[in-house]
Amino acid sequence: MDLKIVLLGPPGSGKGTQTERLCSELKLTKISTGDLLREAVRNDTPLGAKAKGYMDAGRLVPNDLVVDLVREKLKAVKGGVILDGFPRSLEQAQLLDKFAKIDLVIDINVNEEALVKRLTMRRTCKDCAGVYHLEYNPPREEDKCDRCHGPLYQRTDDTEKTVRERLRVYKESTLPLTKFYHEKGILRKVDGEGDISTVYQRILKAIKAKK
Ligand code: AP5
Questions:
Q1: The CATH number of 4-28+79-210 is which of 3.20.20.70, 1.20.120.30, 3.30.460.80, 3.40.50.300?
Q2: Closest atom of ligand 1 relative to the 9 alpha carbon
Q3: Which of 53, 82, 115, 208 is a plausible cystine mate for 12, CB 3.0–4.6 Å?
Q4: 203 C-alpha to ligand 1 centroid (Å)
Q5: Sequence spans of domains, the chain
Q6: For 82-133, what is each residue's pLDDT tens digit?
Q7: Nearest CA to 4 among 30, 25, 24?
Q8: Active-site residue numbers?
Q9: Is the distance from the beta carbon of residue 33 to the nearest atom of ligand 1 less than 6 Å?
Q10: How far apart, in whole angstroms, are the C-alpha atoms of residue 129 and residue 151?
Q11: What is the pTM (predicted TM-score) of this model?
Q12: Rounded distance between C-alpha atoms, residue 10 and residue 169, angstroms
């Protein structure tokens, strides 16, 4: 499949979880700006040093740090791709239009209180970025990733205070993108409530309708 797909949706709507499964089952390449930035922070690179403060505060990292990163990654991809976490402002979407043609944008909808619960109880693998939830999707062994046995940790931006700020930033900067992509005729809304497999089937249906 060689579609270029954007997964939109608020923090905690399941973009990362669904991207993992879609990429593995449909042989798509993942480009996740959140994962790339966290890796840069972990490796203490110049990019990571500049991005860290914004991420810990729940604010968007400036465009000059993320847009070129995505452009370079996209250039290297053969076949289909899922963009998870990019674009997340009108300006980023307009810049993206200059170097890629997006085929489908899936907007995952989940109510705000459910998002807070999902994020504050999320655990992430330090080694492979695999995502778990203490109640809804617990790891088989406590504090260990099922896939690679790496240690699980709580992201520094998953405290309730920062989650609420991320949701505010989402409404202010990212939500207007739904109108932008609706007007282009490529937006599909998907109900993100229900268990992970149910949401996956809804997304798959939207992708198959596009093929
Ligand atoms: P990023 O990593 O992109 O975070 P986000 O968009 O806030 O999204 P999340 O990763 O928090 O949530 P998700 O939707 O992927 O949900 P998940 O699948 O994990 O960005 C982090 C930061 O980096 C930003 O704040 C910003 O600073 C910076 N950044 C990144 N991209 C940027 C850009 N383009 N421009 C500028 N700055 C940028 O699921 C959440 C939890 O819910 C998990 O525990 C999971 O197990 C559980 N779950 C998932 N689905 C379900 C379900 N159906 N039912 C029950 N539980 C579920």
A1: 3.40.50.300
A2: 14
A3: 115
A4: 17
A5: 4-28+79-210
A6: 999 999 999 999 999 999 999 999 999 999 999 999 999 999 999 998 999 9
A7: 30
A8: 15, 88, 122, 155, 166
A9: yes
A10: 10
A11: 0.95
A12: 10
